[in-house]
Amino acid sequence: MMIRTKLMLTLVLCACHAGASAAPCEDAAAAATAVEDYLVAMQEHRFEDAYDDVTANMTDGKSRGEWAALQKLFYEGGEVNIFGIDVRTPQVPEGAADCRARAMVPNVLKSRDKFNNQGLTEFEVYTVVAADEGWRIDAQQTLFDQAEVDRWFPGEKMPEFRDQY
User: Low-confidence residues of the chain, pLDDT below 50?
Assistant: First the structure.
């Protein structure tokens, strides 16, 4: 009975650990390229070009010109400066067997704006979908919980914010 209990406990622990980090995609380099292309275009304020790397979900169904104008307003008004892009290996989405239709692409973004001139490190996960015209970003999530950061970015730590009041 004791051996059976130990075996069950071991299986449960293994299952929990397996769910703690996502599995890398075997062949989804193009998914990572879509995220990098998008972020570089945003970094260079080429918003009309960035539009090609996102789905209607990411643009709220707006036309290229309308979406690009809103991004320009936000970036220039907020004095947004992206100075670091670190796209990581695409991962298999939870509940999926592979990355043929969808991939999760982690990225570490370093940026600053007029309200935060010290800069900020953001841990992001992009949901990227395969479309007829190539991979497109369908959603973006910024992580604020260390447990989530551990899942997608093993060994990385959430930055501590300075001068908090």
Answer: 1-20, 165
